[in-house]
Design brief:
Strand 30 and strand 31 (578-579) form a beta hairpin. The chain is of the alpha/beta class. The chain has three domains: 14-193, Immunoglobulin-like (Sandwich); 203-416, TIM Barrel; 506-602, no CATH class. The chain is 22% helix and 31% strand. The radius of gyration is 25 Å and the shape is flat. The strands form seven sheets. The chain has an eight-stranded parallel beta sheet with strand order 22-21-20-19-15-14-13-23. Strands 24-25-26-28-33-30-31 form a seven-stranded mixed beta sheet. Helix 3 (222-235) packs parallel to helix 4 (271-280) and helix 8 (424-437) packs parallel to helix 9.
């Protein structure tokens, strides 16, 4: 890699600016500045670590006080660097101009990890902060003057409760390695350095799932769910999520009625009996809650007056720094699990625990036993998980992108791609991003839906784009034509036969800037490659194990490149039915494979 020269700055007012500089092999000068350090003593050092470098910043004060703002920035020549990746970026890894490249992260939103990459799947510079809880503002992009890459990490830009010490570390990784490896190692480093211990995902977290949301929305009923679950169970689905609607008779898709969390008797006259019926079909039962929201039309809205982070036209977001708020939320889920024998929860909108102008500052934190909002969220969610786990050790808890960082994995074992109805490309991108950043947690697709009048092959492409995650289905199954049902049945069976490889083995997504046209996973026994563009090539190389190549290109052929001639080849159509195919020679060749089918090469 060409030498990257950079200066890293922690910005402050000139009159009292503190400045320190250390030398980095990867980026040259690293300079620390602080606007107004006041009584804080600040120090910085740099150490090499396994081919990478770690910057350590320590801050100390004689007594608790508000920490000073500081930021870390670098400017480096744009040399063989064309794209910027971050965990929630699904816009082709755009390298924005520096005047528009603003990002932020906190416990319940994104993560402070940014990777500059080239067009050949190679890492150029990955920058990682080990701060998983507090907000970190980032400014990443290209400065027009001189084509310079600019990157900044800014700390304490929002009000922070008084503290007397703070330490943060920044990892710089400029190794010319596969970009996905740099990401995964960066996340592992962040997790370990921050002392986070993600919870283990039970095997049931990897089971195929049926969600009520896209087909029912709020028009959900016990009979409708039961009818669909009978079919879902026959197909091999193992878990149900009942989404929004079970707690209200309203169908306006808003949150004005959230907060009481009492079952709609018109929709579910006997919730406990209904849950048991579904569980007797062989499905685990999970229920949706919008965690922070209390609607203005709920009975509880006035009860929590003065205990909201913010209020809009229809709802307020509870402030978890109040102990009675945390107790209310914990009891809500514990009581539901005990009363209805639930198996898990979809806990939504954790990222709405946020504030611009913090009301606690003006109130001098009155009534709040925790001053730091991130700390309070952490205490709340830890308590929720611990109390639910005490009832059911294998409790399932789903979180949704973009609350996906290492900290959130302390209390959730299912991480789902953000909503992208009918958008198989976004689903594929978000699943791939989550796979790189989620360790051993179960990564789920956004719920699948497609038009019933579409071809079976096009219906299957939605499934194939989600196959490297746990597939969540959200079609009205009993309304689907039989050929669509055959598609689901086949690919659900395929996903379970190859579950270990698809979900738990070495994962390699290629070309994020092109929306991941090739994704592969490899275990000790087999390799599975998904092709999502008809111009993409499955590079097989010197294989000594079976290779499955999924044809999600939308055409009836695929391009492969193999270093040796396979012993045999088999092709299968969209329903998993075997069709004839010639065994390809070594080298590059185009092989005829049915749309949304697959090719099996044996070596």
């Amino acid at each position: 890699m060409a030498t990257l020269a950079a200066s890293i700055l922690l910005t402050c007012s000139p009159a009292q600016a503190l400045e320190q500089t250390v030398k980095s092999k990867a980026v040259g000068n690293v300079t620390l500045k602080c606007d107004d350090p006041g009584a804080w003593k600040i120090d910085m050092k740099l150490t090499p670590e396994n081919g990478k470098e770690v910057i350590v910043i320590t801050m100390k004060a004689d007594k608790p006080q508000n920490p000073p703002r500081f930021g870390v920035s670098m400017s480096t020549p744009q040399l063989d660097t064309h794209h910027l990746w971050n965990a929630t970026n699904d816009n082709r890894c755009q390298l924005r101009p520096d005047w528009s490249g603003y990002y932020n992260s906190q416990l319940a939103f994104d993560m402070p990890l940014y990777s500059f990459i080239n067009e050949n799947n190679e890492n150029r510079l990955t920058v990682v902060s080990d701060e998983p809880l507090r907000r970190v503002d980032a400014h990443m992009g290209l400065r027009e003057e001189g084509s310079m890459l600019v990157a900044e990490l800014n700390y304490f830009n929002v009000p922070e409760a008084p503290i007397d010490h703070y330490e943060t570390k920044i990892l710089l990784d400029s190794r010319p390695i596969f970009w996905g490896k740099a990401i995964s190692e960066g996340v592992e480093w962040m997790t370990n350095e921050s002392g986070i211990k993600p919870i283990e995902a039970p095997e049931s977290a990897f089971d195929p799932l049926y969600s009520s949301w896209y087909q029912f929305h709020q028009n959900v009923t016990d009979k409708g769910i039961e009818d669909e679950c009978r079919t879902a169970a026959k197909l091999g689905m193992k878990t149900l999520i009942v989404d929004d609607g079970w707690q209200t008779d309203d169908n306006n898709r808003g949150y004005a009625f959230c907060g009481d969390w009492e079952v709609s008797k018109n929709r579910f006259p006997d919730m406990k009996s209904h849950v048991k019926k579904v569980q007797d079909m062989g499905l685990k039962y999970m229920v949706w809650y919008s965690v922070p929201f209390v609607g203005k039309k709920s009975n509880n809205f006035e009860k929590f007056n003065g205990k909201y982070l913010w209020v809009d036209h229809e709802k307020g977001a509870l402030d978890p720094r109040f102990p009675e708020v945390r107790e209310f939320l914990c009891n809500t889920y514990v009581n539901a699990m005990n009363e209805w024998n639930l198996d898990g929860f979809k806990l939504d909108f954790i990222d709405s625990f946020s504030t611009g102008n913090d009301p606690a500052v003006a109130e001098n934190y009155a009534g709040r036993d925790i001053k730091s909002l991130p700390e309070a969220i952490n205490v709340l969610m830890t308590e929720v998980y611990n109390r639910l786990k005490a009832i059911k050790p294998d409790v399932l808890i789903e979180f949704r992108q973009a609350y996906i960082g290492p900290a959130i994995r302390q209390y959730g074992n299912m991480l789902r791609a953000g909503d992208c109805p009918g958008d198989m490309q976004s689903n594929r991108q978000r699943i791939a991003n989550l796979r790189l950043t989620s360790g051993n947690s179960a990564v789920h697709s956004d719920m699948l839906e497609w038009n019933e009048a579409d071809t079976p092959e096009n219906a299957a492409r939605h499934i194939l784009s989600a196959l490297f995650g746990v597939v969540q289905y959200s079609m009205m199954l009993n309304h689907l034509p039989e050929d669509h049902m055959k598609v689901i049945r086949h690919w659900l069976d395929f996903s379970q036969k190859h579950r270990k490889t698809l979900l738990k083995s070495d994962f390699r997504p290629y070309h994020p800037e092109a929306c991941y046209p090739v994704i592969e996973a490899e275990s000790a026994d087999e390799r599975i490659i998904g092709l999502y563009n008809d111009a993409s090539i499955a590079n097989i190389g010197e294989s000594n194990k079976p290779v499955y190549i999924l044809n999600a290109t939308g055409t009836s052929s695929m391009i492969i490149d193999t270093a040796k001639k396979p012993k045999s080849a088999e092709a299968y159509n969209v329903y998993g039915e075997k069709v004839s195919v010639a065994t390809p020679d070594k080298g590059v060749s185009r092989v005829n494979v049915p749309k949304s089918g697959y090719l099996l090469l044996k070596y």
